[in-house]
Each structure stands twice: as structure tokens, then as C-alpha cells.
Design a protein that fits this description.
This protein is α+β, with helices and mostly antiparallel strands and 570 residues long. It contains 21 helices and eight strands. The relative contact order is 0.10.
């Protein structure tokens, strides 16, 4: 089929990169934003704009809030088909309570899991999740969407397509093919060391675009390879669901054996029992960590079977001082505070897995490394974007002569997934500041704005793509860059007007989560204005120097015309 292995790798690199690049650029971009997802949350929810807090008192604040929690009616309605008979108005049997905090998030996430009466699956659990102000125990409104952690971050790994986990499967397949594209790219470019230092900015668009594609691909090659691989590792349980298929009959038995070995009860006793002071258990856990020379911040706290004689409390360390996702859990009997178990050291396999996951999810406290993650992710975006541009620039003249539409379609999709994605992102942030805080379903409206604006950007890219079919540049590039710049500035102004947290205030007080988002929007606006200006100059020069090619005369034989076009494409 191909004259050499290198040519076969070039074919694989080109076509797999083209088809799956539209997914991967979304993954890279929102992965970059997810590095600062909690900071974006602070920008989108003004009520949470205060300093990060330690784990609040369980006895005084958390327990009263957890006891009052009930599942959201929309969540309850969603499981109706999984229950025999009607659902109760109030859920009384609580299976678990949990609280999560992080050094970057001022609010605490509290959740409660409830048993579902008459469920078809006895293990069916209904969840209630809230964000809580740890200073006073007040639950924040559920209608507000934490744009960073609840939209941008899931967009990174699932495209926010949750039906049958389809989005996660698509991203996983794209990541697997990305590994193949990276390997094939190395095979294609035999002079890889020279390309590390080569960028001819004054050459033709096709030449300098290819240089930039090679440069960004080589510079960030280890980053791209490692994160594609670790992303697959994190979701290996979904892609290879052995535990939920072949081994599912053994699941219950395995849990009971583990419970007997660890001393942590698997089932409730069915006998009510009061709860001892959880704050005292937390203090004891911190003392034990301190004795080992570990930081004593609590990151996660869980109560199993609350209110039951078999209830136990698990306290996990935040672990922001290391890369690996390890919690050094310590477990106590809830009714007495007696120490039940201290998690033993991890095995070599577990330690390796925790390190790989921790390096990908970056829960550690290291701001310089976080910015390097952002740089690596954006470098991936540039690498993919320049690949799209090179593909179009190389073929659009040939397609114009042959009357083909391939370059026009690819170019329009490239506009949609680059500038269109940016428009949708900044439009969502702007809508967050313009929509009333007490609007019912405010978060749902913000999501509609995101998808609606992105769809409009795609329509605009296709409508303005006629120039590509004539061998010229699509004006949608320039126009959408201008729109991104205007909306980004508008979002900064809207934040200042609606909250009073303008840049002078946030910078002077050192509140960088909000100041950082505003400054990033202004930088984005400046870059897009510069790009729009340069694209405008290029379009003017192109119109003056390169007349549109005349379309090919129609052939009487459509099959012959198609064959001729295929030959001209190579």
C-alpha cells in the first residue's frame, strides 16, 4: 500500500491527527483551564470569594448541615425507572456522609448518600451534594454552577456528554490514537533534533506553520505522551470494566472479606447509637500524621453508617506536600472514638498508580509547576491548530482548481474548534456575570449559552468559508478573533460592575484567584486583537496579489472528474 514504513506513518499521522484533532484540541484547552478550575469557581461564584479554610468543625458545623440534607428533586426523579413503586417524599436511611476540602478551594463540598427503598438494585444510592461555607456552615445555592470544576474540568475528560459515558469513551479513544500519532510523528521527522530549533517566521504560511507544528510537537512531546497515557490509566476501570462484568458476582463477597480483614464493618448493625466527638478523632489523626513527619491538613472525612452501632469515621490527609494521591487514612469507631485501623503502606503497584494519577490530577501545592502544566496544554493546542492550518494551506489551491470542498470543510471545523471554542468559553463567563444571581436554573442557562454560542460560531465558520473554496483565507478567522477579544473585555468589565471586585482591588488585596482570571481574559483579548489585525493585513495583501482561481470546467463524466481530483490530491 505504501512504498515505505515512513510513508505509512505519515498517512496515519495526517488522517488520525485530522479526525481526532478536533476532539484533542478541546481536551487540551479545557485541561489547561482545569489546572486552575477552583480559581475559576471563585470568579464565577462571588459568594465564595474568601480565603481557603481548613476542614471545619464536624461537631459544630458539618454534622448539623449533613443532617438537614436531602437529595435534589431532579435527582430523585431521575431514578424513578430503577425503583419498584413510588419514591418517598423524605429519605431517612443514610448510608454515608462525606466532606472534601482543598487548599485552593475556600468552600467545602459536603455530600450524603441515601438508601433507596424498593430499589431494583439493593446497592442503589441517592446522593445529595452541596457546597458549604466552612466559616458558618451555610449551604450555597445549588442553582449556581461552579464553571471551573463542574463544567470546564468535565469537558476535559468527557466533553460533558454523559449519556452512556459516551464522551469519556470518545476522549479515551482519541488519547489512544494520540499516542500512535506521537510515535508516527517521531518516525516521520528523522531530523527531530534540528526541528527543535527551527522556526522560519518570514517564510510562507505553509512553511512557518509546519515549523511551528514540529517545534511545539517536539518541545512538549514528553508532556503530551505522559498525559495521554496517564489519562488512560485513570479511566482504565471504565475502559476495562472487569470488576463490573466478569467479577461482579464476587463483588459483595470481596467487600465482606475486606471488611473482616480490616475491621471496618461492611453492613450496618441495625441498632441506633450516638456519635462521639468527631473533632477529637480528627485531632488524634493529625497527631499520628505529625508523629510521622507529615503535614496534618485534613482533606477528606467520611462517616459510614451514621447513627448506627457499626458506624465508623475515616479521616484522610490532604497530601498537598507530595505528588502521589495518598491519604494515609485513619479509621475510628464512631460511637466511642476507638481507633480501628491505620492504613498500611501501599504496595509498589498501588504506589505507582497513585503517583501517575497524582501527577496528572496535580492536587499538590506547587504554583510554578501548575503554570508549566498550563503551558504544556496550550502548546498541545498550538500543535494541533497548526496541523489543521497546514493541512488546509497545503491542499486548498488544489481543491479550488478541482472544485472540491474538502479544504473548506476542514477549515470551517478548525475555526469552530479554535476560535469558536474560545467564543463559547468567554461567552459562558460573561453570561455568568450578566444573569441574575437568583435566577432559577442559572447554571443551566449558562450551559445553554455555551452550546448555543458554539453552534452559532460553527454556522458562521461554514457560511464564511466560501473564500477557502477559492483558494483564499476564511474571513471567519479574523472576525471570530475580534469577537473573542470583545467578549473577554466585556466579561472583565461585567465582573467589576456586578461584584465590585475590579482589578485594582483584587491585585491590591492579593486575591489572585479573581485577579488571575481577569488578567488572563485581558491577555486573551490582546492576543486575539493582535491576531485579528495581522489576519486582516494578510487578507488585504492576499486579495491584492493573488486573484481567485477560476473554477474548473465541469466534466461530462463525474467519475472521471472524481478520479482526477483524487490524483491531484496525491
Amino acid at each position: 500500500m505504501f512504498q515505505s514504513f515512513r510513508l505509512s506513518m505519515a498517512w496515519l499521522h495526517t488522517w488520525f491527527g485530522l479526525v481526532l484533532g478536533f476532539v484533542l484540541i478541546v481536551v487540551f484547552f479545557f485541561g489547561s483551564l482545569s489546572v486552575f478550575d477552583r480559581e475559576i469557581d471563585r470568579w464565577s461564584i462571588p459568594q465564595s470569594r474568601f480565603d481557603p479554610q481548613p476542614m471545619p468543625s464536624f461537631d459544630k458545623l458539618l454534622k448539623p448541615a449533613l443532617e438537614e440534607m436531602q437529595p435534589d428533586p431532579a435527582v430523585v426523579a431521575g431514578i424513578q425507572d430503577r425503583v419498584n413503586g413510588p419514591l418517598p417524599a423524605h429519605f431517612d436511611v443514610v448510608r454515608t456522609w462525606g466532606v472534601y476540602t482543598t487548599h485552593r478551594d475556600p468552600v467545602a463540598t459536603v455530600f450524603a448518600g441515601f438508601a433507596v427503598p424498593n430499589a431494583k438494585d439493593p446497592e442503589e444510592t441517592l446522593w445529595a451534594v452541596h457546597a458549604m461555607d466552612p466559616r458558618d456552615g451555610k449551604l450555597l445555592p445549588q442553582s449556581q454552577l461552579a464553571i471551573g470544576s463542574q463544567w470546564f474540568y468535565p469537558m476535559h475528560y468527557s466533553l460533558n456528554v454523559t449519556w452512556k459515558d459516551l464522551g469519556t469513551w470518545v476522549v479515551g479513544f482519541a488519547a489512544l490514537m494520540m499516542l500512535a500519532a506521537l510515535v508516527s510523528g517521531v518516525v516521520m521527522h528523522r531530523k527531530i533534533f534540528r526541528e527543535f530549533f527551527t522556526f522560519r517566521r518570514n517564510k510562507s504560511t505553509q512553511r512557518n506553520t509546519l515549523d511551528l507544528h514540529n517545534l511545539t510537537g517536539v518541545v512538549a512531546l514528553p508532556f503530551h505522551f505522559f498525559f495521554a497515557f496517564t489519562g488512560l490509566v485513570i479511566f482504565a476501570g471504565l475502559y476495562f470494566p472487569v470488576a463490573h462484568t466478569q467479577l461482579n458476582p464476587l463483588h459483595e463477597l470481596s467487600e465482606k472479606i475486606e471488611a473482616s480483614e480490616t475491621g471496618l464493618p461492611h453492613d450496618p448493625a441495625g441498632v441506633a447509637a450516638p456519635m462521639a466527638s468527631v473533632d477529637a478523632m480528627v485531632a488524634q489523626a493529625q497527631q499520628r500524621w505529625q508523629a510521622k513527619g507529615m503535614a496534618g491538613d485534613v482533606g477528606y472525612l467520611q462517616v459510614q453508617h451514621p447513627g448506627d452501632a457499626n458506624a465508623y469515621v475515616s479521616v484522610y490527609r490532604a497530601g498537598t506536600d507530595r505528588v502521589a494521591l495518598t491519604g494515609e487514612g485513619i479509621h475510628f469507631k464512631a460511637s466511642t472514638g476507638e481507633l480501628l485501623r491505620e492504613d498500611p503502606p501501599r504496595t509498589a503497584v498501588d504506589s505507582t498508580n497513585e503517583f501517575l494519577e497524582g501527577l496528572h490530577l496535580q492536587h499538590f501545592r506547587h504554583w510554578l509547576l501548575r503554570w508549566l502544566y498550563v503551558l504544556g496544554g496550550l502548546t498541545g493546542c498550538v500543535c494541533i491548530a497548526t496541523g489543521f492550518i497546514f493541512f488546509v494551506e497545503k491542499r486548498k489551491a488544489q481543491h479550488a482548481k478541482a472544485g472540491g470542498q474538502g479544504s473548506r470543510i476542514v477549515d470551517a471545523l478548525a475555526v469552530t474548534t479554535m476560535t469558536g471554542m474560545l467564543i463559547a468559553t468567554v461567552a459562558m463567563l460573561l453570561s455568568n456575570r450578566l444573569l441574575p444571581e437568583n435566577l432559577m436554573g442559572k447554571g443551566d442557562w449558562e450551559q445553554r449559552v455555551f452550546w448555543g454560542v458554539w453552534a452559532l460560531a460553527m454556522v458562521h465558520a461554514f457560511l464564511r468559508g466560501g473564500a477557502v473554496a477559492q483558494g483564499r483565507m476564511n474571513p471567519a478567522w479574523r472576525e471570530q478573533c475580534g469577537v473573542v477579544a470583545l467578549i473577554a473585555i466585556a466579561a472583565v468589565v461585567a465582573n467589576a460592575v456586578s461584584t465590585g471586585d475590579h482589578l485594582l482591588r483584587t491585585i491590591s488585596t492579593g486575591y489572585w484567584p479573581v485577579a488571575g482570571v481577569d488578567l488572563s481574559l485581558l491577555v486573551l483579548s490582546g492576543v486575539c486583537l493582535l491576531a485579528a489585525r495581522r489576519l486582516g493585513l494578510r487578507a488585504r495583501d492576499q486579495a491584492a496579489l493573488v486573484p481567485p482561481p477560476s473554477p474548473a470546467a465541469p466534466s461530462a463524466d463525474p467519475a472521471g472528474r472524481l478520479a482526477s481530483a483524487e490524483v491531484s490530491h496525491g
